[in-house]
Design goal:
With 344 residues, the chain is mainly beta. The protein has three helices and 27 strands. The chain has one domain: Neuraminidase. 35% of the residues are buried.
Length: 344
Amino acid sequence: MKRRWLIYCIVLFISACSENVENKKIFISDVPTEKIRGTLYLSENASLNVFYDICASDSFVYCLDFYNDSILKVFPSINSSSLIGYCMKGQGPNDLLFPFFMRNSFQSRNNKIKLVDLNSWSVKEINPCNNNSLSRINIDTVLPLPIMPAIKEYNETDSCIYGIDADMQHGLFFIYNKNTQDISSVDYYYDDKEISNKYSSKIMPYLFENHLVVNERADAVCVGMINVNALYLFDLTGNLKKELIVGDKITYPEPDPQYLDFPNAKKYFVSMTGTNDFLYCLYNADASGFSSVFKFDWEGNLLSVMQTDMKLEKISVNPTNKYIYGIKMSEEGGSDIFKFDMRK
């Protein structure tokens, strides 16, 4: 009798957990609710810009460049007629190597922007000059990173660091507690049989390739999937709040024996940005070939789907939600920056 009762309790618990996960699934549409047109903010011009990351404050637009010696370029947000600041590529005290912007840098104040420099394994804070003359930017603050996995995405709060490790050994993302120095992994929920039968352990990290943005005030971590048509909203401790699925079911790409990753598969949420009020997710699986920007509140409620008139690779929104800046690859192999006015 006791054995039968124990089995019943286990079945009931598993059923309750499955129902709980299912209740968190929200199906959303990718049908555009409005269209936004971009204006050319910065052309590659004569010098080839190959920007790979972008970040916007209310006064400045910051771009990181693969190609040129000045790896960081800063422009006034009103227009890009003049370059007002730069950092050189190198290993000096005011130089940068392999940097990327913090995804939640919208929390920075006074136009100060934080970025992670993998070469020096540190977080650096910069504050550009408030004038129109070209000048080399000094690094205001340098904070060494603690011992933790190699990262390709970085967000932080007062108590924790949120990152995606380059080897994807910590699930979707990891949480590093600054006080205890402990690392916890946050895993992706999926049907074990379906995934394990279809994908090898070697290509699993590429299947779950993603981006994340953290909003401490909203107690939210949002993860956007590149190869899967879904977004995941967690609280700051890593508990799943909502799974937002585009369409009526979850879709996984078909593996190709020629590749470890999925170069020919549809790409879904390829870039994320946010403010204290809203979350913006760049979506590239539109059948038209144009990008869409999904706008959510931090509870995961879809507010609008804005279809752009081009394909973008990365976006950043300014803190007052007035403009989105996007990187578009040019036919020549460089990159142009487009500006989208959301006040219209």
